Amino acid sequence: MTPHPRLAPSPTGPLALAFADVRQATLTLAAPLSAEDCQVQSMPDASPTKWHLAHITWFFETFILERFEPAFKPFDTSFRVLFNSYYQGVGEMHPRAQRGLITRPALSDVLRYRADVDARVLRLLDSHADDPALADLVTLGLHHEQQHQELLLTDIKHALSIDPLHKPYAKRWPMTTVHTQPLRWHTFEGGLIEHGFDAALDGTFSFDNEGPRHRAYTAPFELASRPVTYGEYLAFIDDSGYRRPELWLSMGWDWVRSGHRTAPLYWRQVDGAWLNHTLQGQVEIDPRTPVCHLSYFEADAFARWAGARLPTEVEWELAARSLRAPQQANFANRGAFHPLPADDAASNEPLQMFGDVWEWTRSSYSPYPGYRALPGAVGEYNGKFMCNQYVLRGGSCATPAGHVRASYRNFFPPDAQWQFSGVRLARDL
Fold first, then answer.
1. Which of 35, 392, 398, 402 could form a disulfide with 410 if both were Cys (CB 3.0 to 4.6 A apart)?
2. By percentage, how much of the chain surpasses pLDDT 90?
3. Domain check: are 218 and 358 in the same one?
């Protein structure tokens, strides 16, 4: 193992500056955690913070340094297996459910690994600034790292929820005095529309699953003015929502019964009051804020109880592109790490389409017409997961600012709860 990180040049070009900023942002998110915090893996779907720090470094070493660096030598040959996630084309990988058992290398070794790879990538960007293939892969790596920044927060939240002391990750966010905005409905005519990533509208980068842009039809519909709140979801619970099979999909009802579920993840009732685990510790539920950590099953059951449904991703994207006024979004950079109430009563368009909570859609995660995965191992990034999952849109309070766009497609299986996932209602006209 290399004993000391190599000195890196000062970032000069736009891509080098972006690289340095994103890499530092990950370390900033990990800074409040102890080495013991960074080691823990609380469930198979989550990963330790230490593993996230190493894996996103592995990505830059494996897909960029190995290809472009003259006389490439790996930092440590064992890392190729230890920190590979699911790239079968690269080789073997350590079992996902056992990532918390990787006690060696230590966190300090992983941080030296990051520093070494950072210095080498910056030198490469300094000497190959005009190589478009290098620029494309570094850009993909940065967006990949931002995804892991969000996963770092969601995964450590789950781990800290199991800790009996409920110690907070962050300071308590400033509580607001705004009142819950009444739920209103916005009408959209629908029709045959252009759907998917458009560089003129969405910026210069997209993941491969956001295209190709294509025509899609949607009938006229209505979309709720804001996400569903904790208070509204509590009314669903009080109306025996978890005891009424007619509200649930068959698989969802099996999920409720097998898990003896009576409330969403992180809710617990103490002396008649509902408490909620957050990254600021355990707090009383605020009925004004968007409810989060719902599975697709829960979001769908609530919508049926409310006499509505979940939107399709075509409907959601159409509504998001209709926004005329810029809206202040609650992303991770705001530091709340929890949904916040809507505070624009005068708006005549949907609020909180971006940030606060990922919004489940009723659309299965499948390829758009004409979709082709990228060639090589990086082609395993999205396409092979297009089965048994549902699409979420909009980002959350744990998503890095600037990471999502109207065409961005997130996806999870219907029983997933540990993401900041919520619900916005839709209705047919």
1. 392
2. 85
3. yes
Enter the tokens of residue 116: 């070494």
Tokens at 380, concatenated: 């395993």
pLDDT tens, residue by residue, 94-153? 999 999 999 999 999 999 999 999 999 999 999 888 899 999 999 999 999 999 999 999
302 and 206 in a common domain: yes
421 bridge partner residues: 358
- Structural domain span for residue 340: 185-428
| CB atoms inside a 10 Å sphere around CB 161 | 19
Same domain, 194 and 157: no
Q: Which pLDDT belongs to residue 9?
A: 66
What is the number of structural domains in the chain? 2
> Rounded to two decimals, what is the model's pTM?
0.95
**Buried/exposed code over 88-102 (b: 16+ C-beta within 10 A; e: otherwise):** eebeebbeeeebbeb
- For 13-61, the DSSP string reads SHHHHHHHHHHHHHHHHHTTS-HHHHH---STTS--HHHHHHHHHHHHI
Distance CA 410, CA 407 (A): 10
In a domain, residue 198? The reply is: yes
In this structure, are 424 and 286 located in the same domain? Answer: yes
